[in-house]
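Subject: design request, 295 residues
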């Protein structure tokens, strides 16, 4: 008795399911696992784990924060770039801040702890903190001296083209009262500090470039997070400004620290893709082995 077309189709489908399950569910995973055991590939397949004194202390693929319980930089360690992943470098919350170049006005609150900084103020405050810590000039264009976004809200009747030729009021929107504004006057009008909770959105928002050099010693990767929030690398330029602090904390010369930095600096991929970069996690582990801090 001949099988019906319906039965033949289902038998064929079942055979295809069994074959594909054997190939993609058994043979392929076993082949990948076998290849991953080859010398030179095994460590990477296991997550590129790093060990110290027999303990797993991290991965060369995931950054870490080298700070104390208060979030302050530990003097003996190179600092990583900022992270927006969870509380910092959380692989389960990998993400960016999702803030863009138009994020320049802070959401002020009477309680400073509840203030939500804009991307501009975040960059400005980080740059100032790094400049103070490393002994370099952390000032940047569009930033105030106290590390906030230099942004004004200019209020008054608007012209047909949207300009405000004769402002009646000017507010430094990121500087909460009673702070002295970064500019005394703008277009002949006294600049006021911002009242937390007040709405200045009806004004014309004006970022002020200031007189800081665009060629700041604090590079962009020191003040902005990576897209994943897990990047373990910094630029050689950011590493360079940290060398004097590391050398002083570890009691060695800057030349010795620079040699270790160069050892952990990788060039462009294939000679032309990306930029040179320094793996901070590997660098700090190597420094602990070579020049441990006593006491």
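Subject: RE: design request

Done. Sequence follows.
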């Amino acid at each position: 008795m001949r099988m019906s077309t319906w039965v033949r189709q289902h038998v064929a489908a079942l055979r295809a399911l069994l074959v594909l399950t054997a190939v993609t569910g058994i043979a392929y995973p076993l082949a990948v696992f076998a290849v991953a055991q080859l010398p030179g590939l095994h460590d990477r397949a296991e997550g590129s784990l790093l060990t110290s004194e027999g303990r797993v202390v991290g991965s060369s693929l995931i950054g870490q924060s080298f700070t104390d319980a208060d979030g302050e930089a530990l003097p003996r360690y190179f600092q990583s770039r900022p992270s927006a992943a969870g509380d910092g470098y959380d692989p389960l919350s990998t993400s960016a801040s999702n803030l863009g170049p138009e994020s320049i006005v802070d959401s002020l609150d009477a309680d400073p702890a509840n203030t939500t900084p804009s991307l501009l103020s975040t960059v400005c405050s980080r740059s100032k903190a790094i400049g103070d810590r490393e002994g370099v000039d952390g000032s940047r264009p569009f930033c105030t001296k106290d590390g906030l976004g230099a942004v004004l809200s200019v209020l008054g009747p608007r012209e047909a083209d949207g300009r405000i030729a004769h402002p009646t009021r000017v507010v430094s929107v990121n500087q909460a009262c009673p702070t002295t504004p970064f500019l005394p006057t703008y277009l002949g009008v006294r600049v006021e500090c911002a009242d937390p909770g007040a709405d200045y959105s009806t004004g014309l928002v004006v970022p002020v470039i200031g007189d800081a050099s665009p060629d700041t010693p604090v590079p962009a990767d020191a003040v902005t997070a990576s897209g994943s929030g897990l990047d373990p690398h910094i630029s050689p330029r950011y590493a360079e400004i940290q060398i004097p602090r590391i050398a002083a904390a570890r009691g060695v010369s800057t030349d010795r620290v620079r040699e270790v930095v160069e050892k952990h600096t990788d060039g462009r991929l294939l000679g032309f893709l990306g930029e040179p970069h320094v793996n901070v996690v590997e660098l700090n582990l190597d420094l602990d082995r070579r020049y441990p801090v006593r006491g």
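The beta strands are 49-52, 55-59, 151-155, 169-176, 185-186, 189-194, 204-207, 233-234, 265-266, 277-279.
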